[in-house]
User: What shape does this take?
Amino acid sequence: ADHLTPDTTIDAASIAARALLGGPLRILFVGNVIPRKGLHLLVDALSRTDVAWELSVVGQLEVDTGYAQRVAAQARSCGVLPLIRFLGRLDDAALVEAYRSHHLLAVPSYEGFGIAYLEAQRFGLPVIALTTGAAREAIDTGRTGFLVAPGDAAAIARIVSRLDGDRMLLAGMGLAARLRYTVHPTWAQSMDGAVAWLERLARR
Assistant: This one.
C-alpha cells in the first residue's frame, strides 16, 4: 500500500471528526466491477438497511460490461441506484481524496493480497471484507474492520447499520485501522524479507 504518495495521510483528529460530524454513511468500493469483487453482494446488503448511506464505486466498468449493467439493474430494481456513484478508474490524487472523504471501505471479494484494504486503513477507514483470501492478514476483525462469510449480505447489512448507529465505534475503528496500517511492513520491507529467505535457502 505504499505506491501512493508517501506524505498523503490523515491525522487522528480528522479521522474522528469525519466519523462524528454526522450525515449519511459514506461507503467506498475499490476494485474493477467484475463478479469476483462482490459489488452485487454489497448492493444487496445495502438495500436491506434502513440507514442513510452513499456508495462510491471506484474501478473500471469496461472489464465486464455485462456484469456492470446487471449490478446497475439490480440497484435500480432495489430503488438504491440514485445512492450509488460509479466513478470509474481514478488517478492517485483522486483516489487519495476518495479515501479521505469516506467512512468505510467495503469490498466483499476473494483477494490474494488486497492492497485496497491496506490503503483504506492508511486513511483510517475500517474495512468490510470476506473471511476467505488474504483479508484476514490485513484486518483485525472487530477492531479495524469486519470479516464476513462469502454471500452473507445480511451480515454486511448488520455491520453497516451498527457503524451508522454508533459513530463513536466508527471513529475508534478508524483510529485502530490507521494504527494497524502503520505497523504493516511496506512492500520493500516484505521483499527484503523474501530475498533474505531465498538467500538462506540457497546457502543450504
Q: What stands out?
A: The CA atoms of residues 2 and 186 lie 6 Å apart. DSSP finds nine helices and six strands in the chain. The radius of gyration is 17 Å. Strands lie at 25-30, 53-58, 84-88, 104-106, 127-130, 145-148.
